[in-house]
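Query structure, 165 tokens:
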């Protein structure tokens, strides 16, 4: 093989390996950063919702026909069709559930059938009820390639933890 051809193949081999290495480092840095930003926004959202739920929780538990439940139902039924960086978002994907101080579900925007179930052993709920930061990630049951991120916030009124959002 001629020297020119060897140099040509050597250049592309080095360029290819460099590109693979660069892509690997890029993905290793970008993926955690994206998750960090997502988690930060989810923490803000969870704490906002915990404040919204606090009044109803202080008066007992949010009834299925209460104000918070009505607002969540309007959220679930809301129609969206927005372009985000070249992708079309046509569904609202935030699932919101509220538990009481014992970890029993009193309200669920994504699975109304979950009301009454015991989530006290779920990592997000258990850690939050113990005064810690409750967060977890799990595989999506519908799409095994996707990960669902869950962030919880305590519903607090007068220093008492009334439940978890």
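Result returned for the query:
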């Amino acid at each position: 093989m001629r020297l020119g051809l060897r140099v040509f193949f050597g250049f592309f081999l080095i360029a290819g390996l460099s590109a693979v290495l660069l892509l690997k480092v890029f993905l290793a840095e970008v993926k955690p950063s994206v998750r960090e930003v997502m988690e930060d926004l989810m923490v803000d959202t969870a704490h906002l919702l915990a404040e919204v739920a606090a009044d109803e929780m202080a008066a007992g538990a949010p009834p299925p026909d209460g104000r918070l439940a009505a607002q969540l139902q309007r959220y679930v039924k809301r129609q969206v069709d927005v372009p985000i960086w070249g992708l079309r978002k046509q569904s609202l994907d935030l699932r919101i559930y509220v538990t009481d101080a014992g970890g029993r579900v009193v309200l669920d925007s994504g699975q109304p059938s979950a009301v009454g179930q015991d989530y006290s052993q779920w990592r997000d709920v258990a850690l939050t009820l113990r005064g810690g930061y409750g967060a977890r990630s799990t595989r999506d049951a519908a799409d095994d390639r996707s990960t669902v991120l869950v962030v919880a916030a305590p519903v607090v009124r007068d220093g008492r933890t009334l439940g978890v959002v």
